[in-house]
Amino acid sequence: MIIRNASLPEQTTWTHPHAPQQEDEVRMGRSARMREAVRGHLRTAPLWRNSCLTSRGRVGFAFTKEDLTEIRDSLLASKVPTATCVGAIALCRVTVPAQNTSLGPEKTPFFQALGITAEISRGTVEILRDVQLIKTGDRVGASGATLLNTLNLSPSSFGLIIRQGSDCGSIDHPDVLDVTEETLDSPEGIRELASVCLQIGYPAVESVPHSIIIGYKWVLALSVDR
Question: Region entry Disordered: which residue ranges (predicted)?
Answer without folding.
Answer: 1-26
